[in-house]
């Protein structure tokens, strides 16, 4: 099962991807996570990407396409994968099609998680992530028991640099202009399944599972 999770920042792609990993035993491939890891290691790529990420802009297509091209060759992708945050432009989607054709593979499902724009700002600015295990929380909707610590591993919770209000606004605009057109791109291929991204995390997950059955 090769799956793309589409949706605006804050739609819950990362949260759902983590639940899908367990159910389907396939990896989540998040270009955002890969870029943040590169930045943590202070690699030249990570430091360059930071300039774009801090503004809420997209990192250049060739950078993320290169990352994905290498990642998809890893053995753990042989049974399928969940692409989270890639592709984000039509050029990336076209490049992905070419890479997959070269590997004799294709995308099977595109899940589009839909959330009203008015909810996204609140969701993103309240988001917290565990530095240790990556678990995600929200200060109002899904708080951890102890404000600054992860319930699962006691790791420190942090707010992503790009989850501040100004950057979030820019990320949402970038989504409308550059990523939203992908829904049509994949609709033309008959691959899109729309999922209402509002309600309990579990209910949304069950709807995704039903759609993929
Ligand atoms: P995310 O974690 O998916 O919200 O991504 C965080 C940031 O990383 C984005 O705002 C972009 O600056 C960058 N990024 C992640 N994935 C991509 C992508 N596919 N294309 C371009 N930039 C990306």
Small-molecule components bound: adenosine monophosphate
Shape: globular
What does the average pLDDT come to?
95
Rg of Cα set: 17 Å
Number of helices: 9
DSSP strand content: 15-25%
CATH architecture of the domain at 2-26 and 79-115 and 173-212: 3-Layer(aba) Sandwich
Give me the side-by-side strand order of the main sheet: 2-3-1-4-8
- H and E order: EHEHHHEHEHEEEHHEH
CATH topology of the domain at 2-26 and 79-115 and 173-212, which one? Answer: Rossmann fold
SSE class: alpha/beta
- What oligomeric state do these chains adopt? single chain
Topology:
Elements: E1 2-6, H1 13-24, E2 28-30, H2 31-40, H3 44-53, H4 61-71, E3 81-84, H5 90-102, E4 109-114, H6 117-125, E5 127-130, E6 136-138, E7 157-158, H7 165-179, H8 181-187, E8 192-196, H9 201-212
Parallel strand pairs: 1-3, 1-4, 2-3, 4-8
Antiparallel strand pairs: 5-6, 5-7
Helix pairs in contact: 1-9, 2-3, 4-5, 6-7
Adenosine monophosphate binds at residues 9, 31-32, 35, 52-53, 56-59, 64, 85-86, 88, 92, 162, 171.
Keywords, please?
single chain, 213 residues, alpha/beta, Rossmann fold, 3-stranded antiparallel sheet, 8 strands, binds adenosine monophosphate
Please tell me about this protein's structure.
- The protein has 213 residues and is of the alpha/beta class.
- The chain is 46% helix and 15% strand.
- It has a domain at 2-26 and 79-115 and 173-212: P-loop containing nucleotide triphosphate hydrolases (Rossmann fold), CATH 3.40.50.300.
- It has helices at 13-24, 31-40, 44-53, 61-71, 90-102, 117-125, 165-179, 181-187, 201-212, and strands spanning 2-6, 28-30, 81-84, 109-114, 127-130, 136-138, 157-158, 192-196.
- The strands form 2 sheets. A 5-stranded parallel sheet has the order 2-3-1-4-8, with helices on both faces. The protein has a 3-stranded antiparallel sheet with strand order 6-5-7.
- Helix 1 crosses helix 9 and helix 2 (31-40) crosses helix 3 (44-53).
- The longest helix has 15 residues, at 165-179.
- Bound molecules: adenosine monophosphate.
- Residues 9, 31-32, 35, 52-53, 56-59, 64, 85-86, 88, 92, 162, 171 line the site of adenosine monophosphate.
């Amino acid at each position: 099962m090769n799956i793309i999770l589409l949706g605006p920042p804050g739609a819950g792609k990362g949260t759902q991807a983590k639940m899908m990993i367990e159910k389907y035993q396939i990896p989540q491939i998040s270009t955002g996570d890969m870029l943040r890891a590169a930045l943590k290691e202070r690699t030249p790529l990570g430091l360059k990407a930071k300039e774009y990420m801090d503004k809420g802009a997209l990192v250049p297509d060739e950078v993320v396409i290169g990352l994905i091209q290498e990642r998809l060759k890893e053995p753990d992708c042989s049974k399928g994968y969940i692409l989270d945050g890639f592709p984000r432009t039509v050029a990336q989607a076209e490049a992905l099609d070419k890479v997959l054709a070269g590997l004799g593979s294709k995308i099977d499902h595109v899940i589009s998680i839909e959330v009203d724009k008015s909810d996204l700002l609140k969701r993103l600015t309240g988001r917290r992530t565990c530095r240790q295990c990556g678990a995600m929380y929200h200060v109002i909707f899904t708080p951890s028991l102890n404000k600054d610590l992860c319930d699962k591993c006691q790791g420190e919770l942090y707010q992503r640099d790009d989850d501040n209000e100004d950057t979030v606004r820019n990320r949402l605009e970038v989504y409308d202009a550059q990523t939203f057109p992908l829904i049509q791109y994949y609709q033309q291929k008959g691959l899109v399944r729309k999922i209402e991204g509002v309600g309990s995390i579990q209910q949304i997950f069950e709807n995704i599972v039903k759609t993929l059955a």
